[in-house]
Task: structure prediction
Amino acid sequence: MTRILILTDYRGTFYSTARTRHGLCTMDVDRITTYLRGAGLEPEVVRFADLDLNEDLYGVPVLYTSSEDHGLHYKSWIEDLVLALETAGAQVIPGYR
Result:
């Protein structure tokens, strides 16, 4: 099976700016992993802070969320990690640029 990483924020959520009648929402990580398993992939959910950049992630698809925190410091840190992953050869989704 092909491994795919799903990177979540510090709360373990995959934030989305989609609006519902109840306000902003997060994507259902369990549903995403179930779907990916059904497609023959091996999803692994990891928080950004728990990501091991020493691990060989060359060619590994990495689906990540972003952040729109006040001051954008957390977002900047996420972007640094995503750039490091892309530089190491991971297939970040969406691409860094």
Remarks:
- The mean pLDDT is 86.
- The CA atoms of residues 79 and 96 lie 8 Å apart.
- Strands lie at 2-8, 14-20, 23-27, 41-47, 61-64, 91-93.
- The first helix runs from residue 29 to 38.
